[in-house]
């Protein structure tokens, strides 16, 4: 399909190409000094003590659970309104996902519902900072501390976020990030995990590379050394090529956020005048990452809106349908039924994501708004 307003366009270019070229001129393509540089700059941007570049946010979530010895018999509470990966990471760790419903205005996990879901087997909570607005981490941390639970933040939408002075990874034990193709910074596929727990760093570095005692880059530097496998490990390490692509983007991350914020506010101002749509609630005292520009379509069926917008050349997406526990796999495996997550289900039926990225033009925003207004008028 040819779109006059594509749903997403990356803004990678000359700077990223040059950074990749520089890597090609060194012997180490895999994890090495460029990854170390990215980790240093990413942790500085996040204000965390430590960052590790990994292959995806899914793997970062999995790693956080592995390094915390969460596995079979343990329950991990998460939100019904998220991408699959939040939940499948819990399965990869061998633990049991326990889904809870969300707040109606933002789609963020309902902290009161988390309280209700805690059992003696609960080990961790995975909140998702949905669409770019942070969950109330102060309330969640307090709850977790009362029950001795770990918090692993799924911050795939929320690198730049802040709420009441709190940033991702500040109150959580870990925060996990995605650099997948459409995320706010990207290397096609990639991720990172941050933590302030210095005692876990060595264990994380072991688990994320086969449990091997020597990295390839160290062998290259010091000459061949025998290595051993000292514990079970997986394969989550980021490459120098990916890190090179990310470094220039980190420099413009705040500028890009400013641009998306301007565009999102333009959408909101214009869309607020239309009947048949609901805009998300904006928390006070919060820096919204505007990762996704969502609206809830209420005047006509959401899927009718999708057809009409696409026929006008407007690219759209749905984040997310169905609610994760109601996917075929989760409902058949765990017996979840429609009606158990009323707020998440309502969002999954109504939500629509509109084009939002730094290269989007104001004129294109106006074109999308006009197309939405026309679609609603047709009834
Ligand atoms: C994109 C995304 C993920 C998965 O990220 P990957 O890097 O593709 O593994 C996890 N959670 C949320 C909320 C996402 O949007």
Commentary on this structure:
This protein is α/β, with parallel strands linked by helices. It contains 14 helices and 12 strands. α6 links the parallel β4 and β5 (150-154). α2 (33-46) runs parallel beside α9 (240-251) and α11 packs across α14 (362-377). 43% of the residues are buried. The model has no long low-confidence stretch (mean pLDDT 96). The structure holds pyridoxal-5'-phosphate. Pyridoxal-5'-phosphate binds at residues 56-58, 82-83, 85-86, 128, 154, 156-157, 178, 180, 191.
Keywords:
globular, alpha/beta, seven-stranded mixed β-sheet, 12 strands, 379 residues, binds pyridoxal-5'-phosphate, three-stranded antiparallel β-sheet
What's the arrangement of secondary structure elements?
Layout: H1 14-24, H2 33-46, E1 50-54, H3 57-67, E2 75-79, H4 84-92, E3 96-100, H5 111-117, E4 122-126, H6 137-147, E5 150-154, E6 162-163, E7 174-178, E8 191-195, H7 201-207, H8 216-222, H9 240-251, H10 253-271, E9 277-279, E10 286-287, E11 293-297, H11 302-311, H12 328-334, H13 342-350, E12 351-354, H14 362-377
Helix pairs in contact: 1-9, 2-9, 3-4, 10-14, 11-14
Bound molecules: pyridoxal-5'-phosphate.
The site of pyridoxal-5'-phosphate (PLP) has 14 residues, from helix 3 and helix 4.
In short:
By secondary structure, this protein is α/β, with parallel strands linked by helices.
Q: Please write the string of helix (H) and strand (E) elements.
A: HHEHEHEHEHEEEEHHHHEEEHHHEH
The amount of beta strand, in percent, is 5-15%
Task: Output the number of helix runs.
Answer: 14
Structural class: alpha/beta
